[in-house]
Specification:
This protein is α+β, with helices and mostly antiparallel strands and 178 residues long. The chain has 2 domains: 1-40; 63-147, PRC-barrel domain (SH3 type barrels), CATH 2.30.30. The chain has 4 helices and 6 strands; from the N terminus they run ααββββββαα. It has helices spanning 2-41, 63-66, 137-141, 149-177; strands at 70-73, 78-87, 93-100, 109-114, 118-122, 129-133. The termini are far apart. The relative contact order is 0.08. It comes from Vreelandella subglaciescola.
């Protein structure tokens, strides 16, 4: 009986060592794979190493320096404020979202302006930026509301729901008439 137990214990120990070696190999493979992914992540699409940006350079503007900034027209009249920046998938700034009209957040409208339609200059305080457009407040108010992808999806869902509700009402009305 003791011989049997010793053999069983020996077998368990050997399988445990084999399992540990197998797990070690898996860990090493995972580690190698992670190192490879990190190395690949450091390269851009051209295969060159990517350098970290160390400091803001002259001519570069941080988004937080623009968001909530007032936008004025050519007559220096405040016509709205910047609420967001729109970028394309390549990281190029496509435009800005401007809130115009309204009072205390009610009745305001969001309008997108192309990036090249605004002029951004350093403000008098050398801290903030002055954002100017040739459009007036009335012109901006007459522009269509800017709709994000989420807004568009919600609008579609609402239309679909309204259609379903109207179809159900129509069916109910037809059944009631029978």
């Amino acid at each position: 009986m003791r011989k049997y137990q010793a053999c069983l214990l020996g077998g368990l120990l050997m399988s445990g060592m084999a399992f540990a070696q197998d797990e070690g190999a898996k860990t090493q493979t995972k580690s190698d794979s992670m190192d490879q992914k990190q190395t690949e992540a450091k390269k851009n699409s051209a295969g060159a190493d990517v350098e970290a940006m160390e400091k803001q350079k002259k001519g570069q503007i941080l988004s937080k320096q623009l968001i909530d900034s007032n936008i004025v027209n050519d007559s220096d009249e405040e016509i709205g404020s910047i609420t967001d920046i729109v970028m394309d998938k390549n990281g190029k700034v496509a435009g800005i979202i401007v809130t115009v009209g309204g009072f205390l957040g009610m009745g305001e409208k969001h309008v997108a302006l192309p990036w090249d339609s605004v002029d951004i200059t350093m403000g008098d305080d050398n801290e903030n930026y002055a954002v100017t457009t040739s459009l007036g407040e009335k012109e901006l108010k007459n522009k269509p509301d800017y709709k994000t992808k989420r807004d568009q999806e919600n609008e579609k869902r609402m239309k679909d729901t309204d259609k379903k509700m109207n179809d159900m009402k129509k069916e109910k009305k037809e059944k009631d008439m029978e």
